[in-house]
Specification:
Elements (H helix, E strand, L loop, with lengths): L1 E5 L4 H10 L6 E6 L8 H4 L11 E2 L3 H5 L4 E4 L5 H11 L3 E4 L9 H8 L12 E2 L2 H8 L4 E3 L3 H15 L8 E7 L14 H4 L4 E2 L8 H13 L5 E7 L6 E7 L7 H12 L5 E3 L17 E8 L4 E8 L3 H16 L15
Parallel strand pairs: 1-2, 1-4, 2-3, 4-5, 5-7, 6-7, 8-10, 12-13
Antiparallel strand pairs: 8-11, 9-10, 11-14, 13-14
Helix pairs in contact: 1-11, 7-9
């Protein structure tokens, strides 16, 4: 199947090229980058020399649509929606890694991002988390790839919400992330001297744009409105997200019982690894992979359930998750091109 990667020179786009280069069912035929147009991929990014033998080109959806059947769009929000709309009008199936089609309510999108460039497509998009929406992904033409933080929080959280085991009020999500999650943005806080040997929270107090996405999907899982307090922190590392959730059980639950909830939910899932009781997820154990490691701990003294997850933000949290959804859409085995072992050390 012929595919394009739109916005291929960003971190998510480059990770897509790395994964797709080993996919037996996808042939990358077009890669775009406004800044790198006309430059060979291998010249701009030597890690891909001899692997991706294409030149970057300008983003022209009309020209690209005639050459591909599927497109991965890795553009920023708002800019992405216009390209996605043009590709869909041309009959190209699309997986969008921006936030443009994750939120199901156009007014919620407006409140967090501004006016939506293609609101008519919102209802046609499927949220691209195969562990939750596999059946819908198999028959869609537009996938909204989840945000990296929501992926890390929803996978450990949803089983407990679906089972009605925890309160839907006051859920606390605490996440630590590597700097690649911010892309190539030039910002003082990302300077080596500011970030090295440092760690700090940002967008505290219901300011992060992933809050409505988290609450939307958690509420759908629970069947009632869910409220979440989300605080992200920046770590002096390149890759990875470690998320800790603090949940209030509706009745006391042991670590062993919580373990069984996770095991039941993910017994058939290839990319969610439920760790043995007492073990904790570690970033080094998932780096460079499409795995999400989850674990649960119980604090019976305070009646708190502590659920944890670790992912690579660029793989399971973005590009790998997109390819996993594309495999479902296109009828390939879900693990195709995604079973690379984590990078250790």
């Amino acid at each position: 199947m012929r595919v394009a990667v739109i916005g291929a020179s960003g971190y998510v786009g480059l990770e897509l090229l790395r994964i797709l280069s080993r996919h037996p069912g996808f042939e990358v035929c077009a890669v775009t980058s406004e800044q790198r147009a006309g430059v060979a991929v291998g010249d701009a990014y030597p890690s891909l020399r001899g692997i991706v033998n294409l030149d970057f080109e300008a983003n022209d959806p009309a020209a690209i649509a005639g050459r591909v059947e599927l497109a991965f769009c890795a553009l920023p929000h708002a800019a992405s929606a216009a390209t996605v709309a043009a590709l869909r009008r041309a009959g190209v199936r699309v997986l969008d890694t921006s936030a443009d089609f994750r939120l199901r309510d156009v007014e919620t999108y407006r409140a967090w991002y501004g006016a939506h460039p293609a609101p008519e497509l919102i209802e046609t998009a499927v949220y691209g988390l195969p562990e939750l929406y596999r059946e819908q992904l198999a028959s869609t033409d537009l996938v909204a790839v989840p945000g990296c933080f929501p992926t890390s929080a929803l996978l450990p959280l949803v089983p407990f919400l679906r089972a009605g085991l925890v309160s839907t009020d006051g859920i606390i999500v605490d996440s630590k992330t590597g700097v690649s999650g911010a892309g190539r943005a030039l910002d003082e806080q990302f300077l080596f001297a500011e970030l090295d040997e440092n760690c700090f929270p940002y967008k505290v107090g219901n300011q992060h744009r992933h809050v409505p996405e988290l609450e939307q999907e958690a509420s759908l899982a629970a069947g009632v409105d869910v409220s979440i307090t989300f605080t992200p922190h920046l770590l002096p590392i390149t890759r990875g997200i470690l998320t800790t959730l603090y949940l209030r059980p509706n009745q006391p639950i042991s670590a062993e019982d919580a373990q069984r909830v996770l095991e039941k939910a993910y017994a058939q899932e290839r990319f969610v690894r439920v760790l043995p009781v007492g073990q904790v997820p570690k970033l080094a154990s998932v780096r460079g992979s499409n795995f999400c490691d989850v674990a649960a701990f119980s604090d019976l003294r305070t009646n708190n359930l502590i659920v944890l997850a670790a992912i690579d933000n660029l793989v399971k949290g973005a590009s790998g998750g997109a390819v996993q959804s594309a495999n479902v859409m296109c009828g390939f085995a879900e693990e195709t091109a995604l079973l690379e072992a984590p990078m250790v050390p």
